[in-house]
């Protein structure tokens, strides 16, 4: 109720039936709001269940993390209202706005290098209410920046290497700051999203081959030169080789899925959350869902994520049909971020890839991810609302 009222637009809902009397597909806006709302409710339920043992072991109230997650959602909805009601999309795509956003993001990333380490990484700034992970903001800023860049420099992007080289200067600066934290997961998501936007913008295939080869080479180098990354890869290769040490998290996650089977052991009945799976309410919340709600519960989460992603792509396609290229690429980029994080988090929980600290959008516990994800939804709804209202002569600015 709160989510729909916050993002209510002035546009009229689509009719329930088409011209031939057959029920038409719900609007992207309706599907997006309903899916996000269901995800938030499911997130609260599973965080409440998964976090109780962890909270009690640290002398906190049993619903400490549940209350925090609810607070993060409330703050996220309030912050998301700012771009929806107070920011003009045309102003957002102006060059000076892009550089202000990049500058602020860069300064915040630099500031994290002087912050207090948490779990061995300097990724967060203490904002009092919660620790903010600047990499989440960087994802959104890079989407908007690249979406504008590939339109302004469309000839260079499609006909030469200049477009790639110009954007890579900015990307290298941002990603170097991410890697120094270190935050390899966010680096992969941002780089993959940029490649995806360049691809649909018509960049030549040969550039992708060269840059993909360079990216793979760089990734291999970073894994082999960092001991903790190498340990994660080796643990992934054989998750039951050393279940009491390096393979502990992954092995416990797989055991959780195995116990859940089709319908789960029952809500609140997880064994792995009883200090067996460390901080089960964060990156491994899907594993606890698999244990308590089984295949049915995991499928429910992934279907809701798919509906959110599908809504983003529908909004992108509708803007594309109206030749509002910046808006189309922005919605597409947001969809790609959601796809990447959903696949990586689910695959990590299921042992398909090495463990990586990336959240499941709208589901895992965490203030930064929740806030920026809701802002991304607000931007999608803003595009959905304004796209039909823009005159054809003005589309080149959007």
TrEMBL record:
It is found in: Cell membrane. Its main location: membrane. It catalyses: [GlcNAc-(1->4)-Mur2Ac(oyl-L-Ala-gamma-D-Glu-L-Lys-D-Ala-D-Ala)](n)-di-trans,octa-cis-undecaprenyl diphosphate + beta-D-GlcNAc-(1->4)-Mur2Ac(oyl-L-Ala-gamma-D-Glu-L-Lys-D-Ala-D-Ala)-di-trans,octa-cis-undecaprenyl diphosphate = [GlcNAc-(1->4)-Mur2Ac(oyl-L-Ala-gamma-D-Glu-L-Lys-D-Ala-D-Ala)](n+1)-di-trans,octa-cis-undecaprenyl diphosphate + di-trans,octa-cis-undecaprenyl diphosphate + H(+). The keyword Protein transport does not apply. Belongs to the SEDS family. FtsW subfamily. GO terms for biological process: cell division; cell wall organization; peptidoglycan biosynthetic process; regulation of cell shape. This is Probable peptidoglycan glycosyltransferase FtsW. Pathway: Cell wall biogenesis; peptidoglycan biosynthesis. It is a multi-pass membrane protein. The lineage of its organism: Bacteria, Pseudomonadati, Pseudomonadota, Gammaproteobacteria, Moraxellales. NCBIfam families: ftsW (TIGR02614). Keywords: Cell cycle, Cell division, Cell membrane, Cell shape, Cell wall biogenesis/degradation, Glycosyltransferase, Membrane, Peptidoglycan synthesis, Transferase, Transmembrane, Transmembrane helix. InterPro entries: Cell_cycle_FtsW-rel_CS (IPR018365), FtsW (IPR013437), FtsW/RodA (IPR001182).
């Amino acid at each position: 109720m709160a989510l729909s009222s916050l993002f209510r637009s002035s546009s009229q809902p689509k009719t329930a039936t088409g011209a031939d009397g057959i029920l038409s597909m719900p609007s992207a806006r309706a599907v997006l709001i309903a899916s996000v709302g269901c995800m938030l409710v499911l997130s609260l339920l599973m965080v409440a269940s998964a976090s109780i043992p962890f909270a009690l072991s640290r002398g906190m109230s049993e619903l400490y993390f549940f209350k925090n997650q609810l607070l993060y959602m409330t703050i996220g909805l309030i912050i998301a209202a700012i771009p929806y009601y107070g920011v003009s999309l045309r102003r957002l795509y102006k060059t000076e706005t892009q550089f202000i956003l990049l500058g602020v993001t860069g300064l915040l990333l630099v500031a994290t290098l002087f912050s207090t380490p948490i779990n061995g990484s300097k990724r967060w700034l203490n904002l009092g209410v919660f620790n903010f992970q600047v990499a989440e903001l960087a994802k959104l800023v890079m989407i908007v920046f690249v979406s504008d860049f590939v339109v302004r420099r469309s000839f260079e992007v499609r006909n030469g290497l200049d477009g790639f080289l110009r954007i890579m200067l900015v990307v290298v600066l941002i990603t170097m700051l991410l890697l120094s934290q270190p935050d390899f997961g966010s680096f992969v998501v941002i780089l993959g999203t940029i490649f995806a936007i360049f691809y649909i913008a018509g960049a030549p295939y040969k550039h992708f081959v060269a840059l993909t080869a360079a990216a793979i080479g760089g990734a291999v180098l970073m894994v082999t030169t960092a001991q903790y990354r190498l340990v994660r890869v080796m643990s992934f290769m054989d998750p039951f080789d050393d279940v009491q040490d390096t393979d502990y998290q992954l092995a416990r996650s797989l055991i959780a899925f195995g116990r859940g089977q089709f319908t789960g052991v029952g809500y609140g009945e997880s064994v792995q959350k009883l200090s067996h799976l460390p901080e089960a309410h964060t990156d491994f919340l899907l594993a606890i869902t698999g244990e308590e709600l089984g295949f049915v519960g995991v499928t429910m989460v992934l279907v809701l994520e798919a509906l959110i992603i599908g809504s983003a792509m529908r909004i992108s396609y509708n803007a594309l049909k109206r030749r509002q290229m910046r808006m189309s690429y922005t919605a597409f980029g947001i969809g790609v971020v959601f796809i990447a994080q959903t696949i990586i988090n689910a695959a990590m929980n299921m042992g398909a890839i090495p463990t990586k600290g990336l959240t499941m959008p709208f589901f895992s516990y965490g203030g930064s991810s929740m806030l920026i994800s809701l802002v991304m939804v607000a931007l999608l709804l803003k595009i959905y609302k304004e796209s039909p209202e823009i005159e054809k002569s003005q589309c080149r600015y959007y």
